[in-house]
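Bug #2210: token dump truncated for DUF4179 domain-containing protein?
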Amino acid sequence: MSFENLIRKELRGTTEERDLPIPDVVRRRIDETLVELVGDASTADDIVQDGPEQPLRRRASHSTHRLKRLALAIVFLLLSTSVWIASNPQTVESMKPYLSSIFGWIGDKGVKDNLPLQTTGELPILAEVKNNGYILRIHEAFYDGLQVSFTYTFRKEQGDIPSGTYVMPDFQLAPSAKKLLGSTNKFDHGGLYDGYEAGVVKYFVQKKLPDSFTLEVNVPKFGIDTMDNPGNYTIRKGDWSFALPIKGEDHSHTVQWDKPLRAEQEKNSFEVVKLRMSDTAAEWHLRLQIPLRMRESMSDEKQYLSYKIIDEDGNMLEPSGESTKGHNTDNTYPTTADAAYIEDVLTHTPPIRSGTIITVIPMTRTITTVDGKPEWKETPLEGLTIKVPVE
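Reproduced locally. Full output below:
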């Protein structure tokens, strides 16, 4: 079981595996951290990266065992808190004495640029629950047809959460909310701010919702870790469940094309299946098919699949959440020559202005050494780049 799945099992219990994907910005920071670790371990060998959702695996040795423990601890810390705040504490100092909007602090670019946010004054409180010495407050919320999103703070009733402590509340949709929202993809992230945890939770939905509804969320526990003893996290139980009234309007639409957006190269194929947009985000449904033997050899060669979305000016659109699901067309062993691996990708970027053409590139990523230093090498899959007209 991977370290990420272990955390999910301990914190999430029997909830769906897709309930807590890793935000892509966090995944990239994990990548950077692992590259640094590889650089520190120039004498270590056989570094294996199974995929973007898998933690680093290493052979057992004195140095590599130590690095493995360090890598796992760092991965958990990055999963548990806001990467950019952890690496830029001066950002926190510059925003004191209080936050006016958590969306404005750690929200993704699409929300910051396109949603009216409070810029002065104290945070509103939409819901508040106290239990077992901790207070959960919900501050902001919206629905725009593509996502239901809210911000929160989690703090002690007495005193502050110490600096260097990482907190992950366990937000679970109540049965009524699951029925209301239908199939969802959830992404959440947060960071310690001035003695309390603050964060953003968002559910991307696939169905039309009423303009006003009540979102019931259960919070039966939270995970906590400290920098003094990283990786030895604890689970604390309680009940911080809440019911949140939400108002919004469905501003989402699906982009239409005259013909399917599909590219083929030998036995490889890539397709932009669907593109949905709202005021705050664009949701991309992608599908890649490659020979299963190629997928298996990628693991042996320390490669994994990645996807880059670029605007007309050559700027990469910053992902704000990605989940992947892969399956094999033939699970027999040994692998048959015509067996394929199919990966379905759901990724989110800021919204895209109409009339532009976006480039979507599937690629492999590999750890390489340049001038004695390790770094990630990106290689586009030949012949599979797709130009996407957005109208």
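Output looks complete on our side. Confidence is low (pLDDT under 50) at residues 1-9, 12-29, 37-97. Marking as cannot-reproduce; reopen if the truncation happens again.
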